[in-house]
Structures are given as C-alpha cells and as structure tokens.
C-alpha cells in the first residue's frame, strides 16, 4: 500500500499507567504522513511531541543500533525505528509492548530479568593468559565464524516472541544464548567450558523447541535458533 | 557477581539440572521408532517382499520377542519423555508437575510391564 504525504494513519497504542489505570486499554492517535518512508518511531514521536506528552516508549539512536525501541507492531516484534509504516499495508497499526515482559508504563517494559540472563552467560572475552601487548589476533576464517552472532543489539524482540520464554520464567531465552554462542565460537576466548556448563541446563539450550519465532522477530535478521543448535551440538560433542 | 544477580547463579549450575540426556535420547528413540516401525511392517504385513531365509530369521520366536520388547521400551520412553517435556513447558507449579510426572511415570512402567508379559509369556 502506498501512502502519500498528507495521508493519515491510525496508531492504536497500548496504554497502561500502573499508578492510575486499573487495566490496560488501547488509545487511537492520528498520525500524518509527512514524508515518504516514515518509520513507526517517527509516528510515535509525532504523537508524543504534538499530541500526547504522556505516552511512554523507549528510543535512542533511531537507526537500529541501540535496541531500545523493541515493541510489538501489528502482532510482530520489531524495533520501531526499523519498521516502515507503509510495509504494514494497513491504515491502522496496533502497537503493543513486547509480550512476556512486565509493563512499566505504556510501551516501556522491565528488562531487568532479560539483562540478568544476558550477564549470566558471561558476555565478554575470558582469557587464561596475560593479554598481548597489541591487539588479539584472529584469522579471517575464525572471524567469519562470528558473523550472525555478534550483531545482536539486545532489543529483546527474539526472547519476547518465544512461547517458552513466556511460560518458563527461568528460560535463558534466545538472546542470551545467541550471545553465549558469540563467545563460545570466538577463537580468542578461553571460557567455552564454563559458558557451556551454564547453557547446558533444562532452562537453557534444551528448553528450545525450535518454534522459530525468534528468527521472524529479529530486526537484525539473525538466527538465534541456529545458534542454540550450535551450542547443543558443542555440548553433545564435549560429553559424548 | 553483582548484587542484582543474586539467585541467578543457582538456577543455571549443577549437572543435575541439565537436560541433555533426555533431549538426546528423545531424538535417538524417535529415530529408532521410525526404523522399528518400518521393520515391524516388513515382519507382520509385507513378509512376501523378503527372501524366505531372511523371513525365517525374522519370524524366529526369540528374535521377535527381543524385537518387540525393545519396541515397547523405546515407545514407552519416547512417549513418557515427551509428556514430561509438555509438563515442564506448561505446568508452572512445581508440586503439580512432580505429581503428574510421578503418575505418568508409574503408568509408563505399568504399560511396559503389561507389554513385556504379553510378549514374553
């Protein structure tokens, strides 16, 4: 559907202020298309700056790098700064907070548990030897193994789209395990064993039932399911 | 480890909390069940497709008994393990989960025993 400058689109936005509201509700806002290729984030900014300053949502870089503005748009998790309004082929966009996370206010959710699980897999280089005087060298082939793993922006879209992340509060989730894989397969890292010990858990890699929602949800087009399968393979290889 | 991480470490450490064996065994038994099922069809329904010497071997009482005991064992393990997975995924109360696993576990053992005494008189 082509939207022209001057056209109007309805944003049906999830609203909830736990200090005031008894229950969440949806509020409709009219967003004017002011230039071709407007993003959903541009629409939300228009609402907040010109219509309703009480609307709460996170945003920062507005170009798909910071991962702040993960939300559920028309039933699919994505970052609003990477979602073109036109691509939804509708004049009414339903915008909700990421499912499975506690809502703080409106589209802002609590990421505490998500980040604790991320920190749990030790997302940093672990070295048993003293650091070299210059940079840590890595061959081109070893560096290529990290493609598809290091690009994660921690927006939470993948974990939030996983039904087992909703049902099992202890499940590490696709994002934490993608980041675990990013270091497990890094040739410069010596912490492979301890990371595999952490993800080798019934709330870790073995909870993944390959629903594949995480792949659809990832705005960076990464494949957390494949990363989890790689970790499963490494664990089985190490054990048997 | 920072204070806000308190409680997280215990959840993901300890070999008893791993699920690697049941995950792996579920796939191996699943694969074996497909092969066993195909073999079962050859033994019981498509016998004419086999050379007579092979057929004699397969129809041998001892072979059939071992074959069907293994069939029942894999079937019960695969089924029960799958049901346990469903309980782990969808039942959030630890008490209910344990109770249901116990009930279904005992049912599985009884089921296998019934199959065993039916196959090996």
- Class from secondary-structure proportions of chain A: alpha+beta
Number of strands of chain A: 7
CATH class of chain B: Mainly Alpha
The description of the largest β-sheet of chain A is: 5 strands, mixed
Cα-based radius of gyration of chain A, to the nearest Å: 20 Å
How many helices of chain A? The count is 9
Q: CATH fold name of the largest domain in chain A, please? A: Fumarate Reductase Iron-sulfur Protein, Chain B, domain 2
Roughly what fraction of the amino acids of chain B lie in strands? under 5%
Tally of domains of chain A: 2
Q: How does this model look, in words?
A:
The complex is a heterodimer of chains A (240) and B (121). By secondary structure, chain A is α+β, with helices and mostly antiparallel strands. Chain A has 9 helices and 7 strands, in the order E-E-H-E-E-E-E-E-H-H-H-H-H-H-H-H. Helices cover 32% and strands 14% of the residues of chain A. In chain A, the strands form 2 sheets. Chain A has a 5-stranded mixed sheet with strand order 2-1-5-3-4. Chain A has a two-stranded antiparallel ribbon with strand order 6-7. With 121 residues, chain B is mostly helical. Chain B has a single domain, classed as Up-down Bundle (3 helical TM bundles of succinate and fumarate reductases), CATH 1.20.1300. Chain B contains 5 helices and no strands. Chains A and B meet through helix 2, helix 7 and helix 9 of A and helix 1, helix 2 and helix 4 of B.
What are the defining features of this structure?
heterodimer, A: 240 residues, alpha+beta, Ubiquitin-like (UB roll), Fumarate Reductase Iron-sulfur Protein, Chain B, domain 2, 2 domains, five-stranded mixed sheet, two-stranded antiparallel sheet, 9 helices, B: 121 residues, mainly alpha, 3 helical TM bundles of succinate and fumarate reductases, 0% strand
Task: Provide a concise account of the structure shown.
With 240 residues, chain A is α+β, with helices and mostly antiparallel strands. Chain A has helices spanning 40-51, 112-120, 140-144, 157-161, 163-167, 173-184, 192-199, 213-217, 224-239; strands spanning 8-15, 25-32, 70-73, 76-79, 92-96, 103-105, 108-109.
């Amino acid at each position: 559907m082509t939207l022209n400058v001057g056209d109007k689109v309805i944003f049906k936005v999830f609203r909830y202020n736990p200090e005031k509201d008894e229950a969440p509700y949806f509020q409709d806002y009219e967003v004017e298309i002011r230039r071709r290729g407007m993003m959903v984030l541009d629409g939300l900014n228009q609402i907040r700056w010109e219509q309703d300053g009480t609307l709460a949502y996170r945003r920062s870089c507005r170009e798909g790098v910071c991962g702040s503005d993960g939300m559920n748009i028309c039933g699919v998790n994505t970052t609003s700064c990477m979602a073109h309004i036109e691509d939804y082929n509708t004049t009414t966009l339903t915008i909700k907070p990421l499912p499975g996370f506690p809502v703080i206010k409106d589209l802002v959710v609590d990421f505490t548990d998500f980040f604790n699980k991320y920190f749990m897999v030790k997302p940093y280089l672990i070295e048993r030897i003293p650091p070299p005087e210059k940079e840590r060298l890595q061959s081109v082939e070893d560096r290529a193994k990290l493609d598809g793993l290091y690009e994660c922006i921690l927006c939470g879209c993948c974990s939030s789209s996983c039904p087992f992340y909703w049902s099992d509060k202890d499940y590490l989730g696709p994002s934490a395990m993608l980041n675990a894989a990013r270091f497990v397969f890094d040739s410069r890292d010596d912490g492979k064993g301890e990371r595999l010990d952490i993800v080798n858990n019934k709330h870790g890699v073995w909870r993944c039932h390959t629903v594949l929602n995480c792949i659809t949800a990832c705005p960076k087009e990464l494949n957390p399911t494949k990363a989890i399968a790689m970790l499963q393979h490494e664990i089985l290889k190490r054990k048997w | 480890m920072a204070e806000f991480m308190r409680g997280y470490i215990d959840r993901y450490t300890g070999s008893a909390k791993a699920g690697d064996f049941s995950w792996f065994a579920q796939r191996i038994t699943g694969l074996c069940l497909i092969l066993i099922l195909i073999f079962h069809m050859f033994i019981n329904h498509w016998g004419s497709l086999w050379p007579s010497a092979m057929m004699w071997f397969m129809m041998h009482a001892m072979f059939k008994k071992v074959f069907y005991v293994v069939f029942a064992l894999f079937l019960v393990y695969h089924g029960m393990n799958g049901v346990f997975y469903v309980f782990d995924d969808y039942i959030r109360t630890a008490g209910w989960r344990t109770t249901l696993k116990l009930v279904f576990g005992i049912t599985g053992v009884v089921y296998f025993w019934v199959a065993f005494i039916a196959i090996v008189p």
